[in-house]
Design goal:
The complex is a heterodimer of chains A (267) and B (473). Chain A is an alpha/beta fold and 267 residues long. Chain A has one domain. Chain A has helices spanning 17-41, 52-60, 73-78, 81-88, 103-111, 125-128, 134-148, 151-164, 172-175, 177-182, 215-218, 222-232, 239-251, and strands spanning 67-70, 93-94, 118-123, 203-205, 211-213, 261-264. The chains are: A alpha/beta (267), B mainly alpha (473).
Chain lengths: 267, 473
Amino acid sequence: MHSSTSNFERPIPAQPWRGIAVLVVIVTLLCAIAWEVRCRTVGYGPTLNDTEDLWAQARRRLKPGSVVIIGDSRAWFDSDLDELERGLGSRPVQLAQPGSCAFPVLEDLANDEAFHGTIVCSIVPRMFFAPGGPLVENARKAVKRFHTQTLAQRASHLLAVPLEEHVAFLKERDLTTEALLKELPIPNRPGALVPPRTPPYFQTVDRERRARMTASCAHPGRLQTRVKMGWARLFTPRHHQITFRGRWLRSVPGRRSKRVFATRTRP
Amino acid sequence: MLFNSLTFVVFFAVVVSAYWMMDSWRGRKNLLLIASYIFYGAWNPPFAALLFSTTALDFYLGRRIAKEQRPGPRNVWLVISVAVNLSMLGFFKYGNFLLENFQWALARGGITYQPPHLDVFLPIGISFYTFHSLSYTLDIYRGVMQPTRSLRDFALAVSFFPQLVAGPIVRAGDFLPQLEAPPKPQTGRFLWGLLLMTLGLFEKVVLADTMLAGSADSVFSYGGPLVALDSWLGVIAFAGQIFFDFAGYSICAIGAALCLGFHLKDNFRFPYAAVGFSDFWRRWHISLSTFLRDYLYIPLGGNRLGAARAMTNLIVVMFIGGLWHGAAWTFVVWGLLHGSYLAIERLLKVFTTEVTWAEGFYVKILIGLGTYALVCIAWVFFRASDFATASRLLHGMFGAHATADAILSTREILQIGIVTLGMFIAQWSLRETSMEAAVARLPRWVVTAAWVFMAGAIILTQGNSNAFIYFQF
C-alpha cells in the first residue's frame, strides 16, 4: 500500500469549457484558412522547407558510387538534376546549401569510408574558406543532424513533408511570425551593426532538395527587382559565371570517368 | 520527443485516445508506462535501459530500507542508492569536467597530464529522472512514505512522460498515491489541460524562441564590446527566454498530465514579481528548490544552528544547485551568486525585523525591480559560454567599454521591451493569486479569444522546433 504523502489536486477554473473549446477550434480553423488564402493570393504556394532534416534525408540517399553536389546557393539553384542524370547516367544527390561553406560536407564525405563516388563542389572562395561563423555552422549543423538524428526527429520530418506539400503558409523562410516581424519597416539606430534584410521568397524545394525559382521571381517585376537589390550588397552580378557553368554542364555528358569539378566564381 | 514537434502531437493524440478508451486501470497504467519509454526511447533507445536500471535499483533499495530496522544497514542501503544515482549523474554529466579540472590542477603543480576525452552522450533529462528516483529512497528513509509493491507503478512514477525529461521534479510520494485509483474522465479538467498545453507551447515557441531567443543569442555570441543598452537588453531577453522556455515546458507537462487525469504541482509562480531572493526561490523552479531544501538544506542544519551556519548552508546548497544545472564553472558562479544573495538577504533581515516601511506597495515594487536586476546579473554567468564572455558583457552593462558596438535592431529592442513589460504586468498582477483563480474570474469571451490567439500564434510560428533549454540539464 502506498503511503500517501500528498493529496494534491489542481483546481479547475469554472468555465463552460466545452463551448469554449468548440469555438476555439472553429475560429482557429477559419483564421488558418483565411491566412492560407491570403498567402496564396500574394503568390506563395506550398513548398518544403529546406531544413536540416531534409538535408539528412538527402544524405541518406547517398550510395557508395553516387554523384553528389555540394557547395553553396550556386550549386543549389543552378544544378538541374534531370539534365545531370541524362548526362551522367545516374541521378545526383543534392547536398548543396545556400549561404554555407561546403568544407564540413566535403570533410564528412571524405571521412565516409563507404563512399567512393563523385563530388561536384561549387566553390566561392569567401564561403569555402570561411574561418567559422554562420557559413560553416549551417553546414556543420546539417552534417551533425545526419549523424545524430533521433527517431523522433525523423518521424516529425516525415509528418511535416506532406503537410508542407499542401499548405502554403508553412513556408518557414517567409511566413512564420519571426519572418513577418522582420519585414516590419522600422528604421534602426544610426551606426547599429544590423545585418541587411535578405530578400523574400523566390524558390520552391522538393523532396530531392531541388530548388526552383517561382514564376513571380523568374519574370521581371517587383519581386525580382527586390530579390536582385537584396543580394546586391553581398554579391556582384554573375552573368559571366552562368555562361561558364552552362559550358561546363554541356561538356559533362561526354565524360565517363569520375572526377571532382570545382567551379570557381568571383565574389 | 519535444512537446513542440509534430511527432508529439500524434503521439499524444494516440496515447490520450487509447488511455480513455480503456476500462482496465492496470491496462491504462501499462499503456502509460510503455508510452513513457517510447517517448524517452525516441531520442536514444539504449538510454531507456539506463532509465530502467536506475528505477529497478531504487525500487529494490527502497524495499530494503523499509524492511531494515537497524540504523546501520538502513544507512548503508541509502548510501548505495545515493552513491549509484549520483555516480551515474557524475559519469555522464561531469566526467569530462572533472577530468579537465584534474588536468588543470596537475598542471598547476608542474605535471603534464593529457586525460582521454570521454566521448559520452549526456542522456537527456538525467538530472531530472535521477532526482525523481532518488526522492523515493530518501522519503522511505525519512519515514515519509512506505515503499510501493509494484515495480510497474514506481517505473511509471519515475518515467511518466510529461515530466520525464525537463521536470517538474515530481516526487514519488506525490505521484504514487495517484496510481491507487483510476481518475474519472472530466471534460473540464481535460480541456483545461489542453489550454495549459497551448499556453505552455505559446510561451516556448512564440515568446521564448521567436521574440527573445534571437536577441539573446546575438548579444551573448558577439565577440566585441557592446554598448550598455544592448548588453542589458541581451541579458533581459535571456531572462525572459529562460523563464518562458522552462515555465512553458512545466505548464505543458502539467497540462498533459491533467489530460490524463494526473495532478502535478506548480513549478513556477510568477518569479519576476518576487520581492527578495527567498521569495524568488519560492517562485522559480519550485520543485528543485524544495528538493534541495528538504534533502540538503534541512539535513545540513537549515537555520536551526544560528544565522552564520544558515548563511553557509544557503551558499553550499546554491553551489550544488548551480552545479546541478551544468558541468561548468560559470554555473557554479551563478549558484554562488544566488547563495550570496540569499545569505545577504538573511543578514539584512536580522537588522530590519522592526522595519514597517518595507511593506509599502511602492517599496515592494522597488525591491522587486532590484531583485530582478540582480537575478539578471546572475543570468550573465548562466548563459555565457565562458568567463571572458561574461566579463565582456558585464563591462558592457556598466558602460566600461571606451568604444562599443550596437547590434540590436529597433525591432528586436521593441520585441524585448514589449514582451518584458507584458511579463511584468502579468506577473505583478497575479503574484498574490493563481492562474486558475484569475481564469475563473475572466469572461468566457476573453478566455476564448486568448486561446484562439495563442493557438493561432503557435500555428503561425510552426517549424521553429528548438529544444527546450532545460533538456541539457
